[in-house]
Amino acid sequence: MRNNKSLLRIILPVLLLAAIITTVAYFSRSSWSSKNTVWDRLVNEDMNQAKTLQKLGKLKEALAIYEKHAANDHPVSMFYAAKFYSRGWSKAPNLNIARGYYLKAVEYSFPYRGETAYELGRLFQRSKGADCNIVAIEWFKNALKWNYVKAALQLAIHHEKGLGVEPDMDRASSFYEIVVAAENEQAMIKYARLLINHKYASKLDPAKSEALVNQAMILLKRKAHAGSGTAAKQLGRLYRRGKLVFQDNSKAKKWLMKAAHLGSTGGMHDYAHILLADTKHPERHPEAIQWLRSAADRGHGGSMTALGRFHLDEKYNLTRAASVMWFERGSEVPHGGSLEELARLYNLGLLVSQDREKAIEFAERGNRLGHSGSTKLLAEILNEKAASELISPNTATIKR
């Protein structure tokens, strides 16, 4: 098993590098050429059958149909097969297989081309390479060019946080405006936060922020009542945080419970934390832990990190030894909190063999995600390393 893991550590970076090289080659073209798809009645009937199976929860059967036609370079089939592998539907996530399908599908002119480019951007956001944020930005630009407006939200976030590009609030604002015009509630909320953040004094606009929040609340409530778990989760978070709307814990709990039952993994995570914060009803804590496990099993990195931390602190009758497993799972999503915790464990030699280089690697990955805890820890570890290198291990004297 250990040899297999060592082999994977060698192979995966090589595969990622190959994907980046392929992507750079795509972007170096003076203009994008498009392959046309030939309409085939039998293939389209199979696509309809696969979508029906997917709705019925028969995911393995649906994937088998998608992969059958993906083998013949059918772009829609490749798109859906890639989604299965990137989301972990029916089997464990495999980002390399997903990336391969997306890279082949995006060469075709078909209805999901823009969304395919967007999904490639999201995959590179989750990848480990130092240049992955830069590559992600290029894919989001192509997605926007191919009329997938949601990509503007990711471009806004990259420019606001300085991920793969220098921070630029003017560019961030222009991208937020594009996706806000398409009535994207998440963009409205994020843009509203930017407009009241005193860090960006030149962008302060409380009145516009309030208008955006009010518009988002109307749209979110409409969608939540129609059965959207994502909308219910967003409402719960807004009421819980109380920065853009008046804080109301009862409304937060109501919406997050609805989100959890509607299948939102973020809703499950937040609802679990509300139950755990209720010290008057500890009998509900096991239910909360189960919600976290359900979310984690569906790929929610924040839930993996939370479970790892609870195990590490031996809370809720959880054992410490299992914490590393949860952090490792979270690091593969990747989630910044898990990367920070693994960096700390390796730096201290707690539950794992002490390894400063591994600690730096995990902290650097978290830093590239824009995770502030990882950034702070990375600086601390590098300072410790620099200080230790000034002292000779044999003579314990200061090097000059």
Notes on the structure:
The protein is mainly α. It has 4 domains: 14-22 and 47-147, Serine Threonine Protein Phosphatase 5, Tetratricopeptide repeat (Alpha Horseshoe); 149-223; 227-298, Tetratricopeptide repeat domain (Serine Threonine Protein Phosphatase 5, Tetratricopeptide repeat); 305-400, Tetratricopeptide repeat domain (Serine Threonine Protein Phosphatase 5, Tetratricopeptide repeat). Helices cover 69% and strands 1% of the residues. The chain has helices at residues 2-27, 41-55, 59-70, 75-87, 95-105, 113-125, 132-145, 151-161, 169-181, 185-195, 206-225, 229-241, 249-261, 265-277, 285-297, 301-312, 323-332, 336-348, 356-368, 372-389; strands at residues 35-36, 108-109. A two-stranded parallel sheet has the order 1-2. The longest helix is centred in the first third of the chain and has 26 residues, at 2-27. It is globular. It starts with a helix and ends in an 11-residue tail after the last helix.
Topology:
Layout lengths: L1 H26 L7 E2 L4 H15 L3 H12 L4 H13 L7 H11 L2 E2 L3 H13 L6 H14 L5 H11 L7 H13 L3 H11 L10 H20 L3 H13 L7 H13 L3 H13 L7 H13 L3 H12 L10 H10 L3 H13 L7 H13 L3 H18 L11
Parallel strand pairs: 1-2
Helix pairs in contact: 1-5, 2-3, 3-4, 4-5, 5-6, 6-7, 7-8, 8-9, 9-10, 10-11, 11-12, 12-13, 13-14, 14-15, 15-16, 16-17, 17-18, 18-19, 18-20, 19-20
Number of strands: 2
List the uncertain runs: 1-22, 395-400
What does the overall shape look like?
Answer: globular
Structural class determined from secondary elements: mainly alpha
> Mind telling me the CATH superfamily name of the largest domain?
Tetratricopeptide repeat domain
Helix content: 55-70%
Query: How much strand?
Result: under 5%
**Name of the CATH class of the largest domain:** Mainly Alpha
Number of H- or I-type helical stretches? 20
The third-level CATH topology of the largest domain is Serine Threonine Protein Phosphatase 5, Tetratricopeptide repeat
